[in-house]
Specification:
Elements lengths: L6 H15 L5 H18 L5 H27 L20
Family: Belongs to the complex I LYR family.
InterPro entries: Complex1_LYR_dom, Complex1_LYR_LYRM4, ISC_assembly_LYR
Protein name: Complex 1 LYR protein domain-containing protein
Length: 96
Amino acid sequence: MAAAPTKQALQELYSNTLRSARAFSSYNFRQYFVRRTETTFRDIESETDSAKLTAFYNDKTKELEVLRRSALVNQLYGGRKLVVEEQSAERERSDN
């Protein structure tokens, strides 16, 4: 029987998953995966069964790899920013 992942390993997996979720250039995908990650890890927070924690860790590690590849492809084909996203301030032109 495999040992349950440590709390530090779960926190590292959580932060890596959030980092990958925030790498999407598309606002909708980015927001969806950030919310999904927060919800998923919040649900497992109080779990103590080592078998469930090990299964969760293995499953989410595989999902992290898929998420990383998806974010990379999304960055390649990203479009313009939406109105709800923060726009970079345009420089004002001086007439000097």
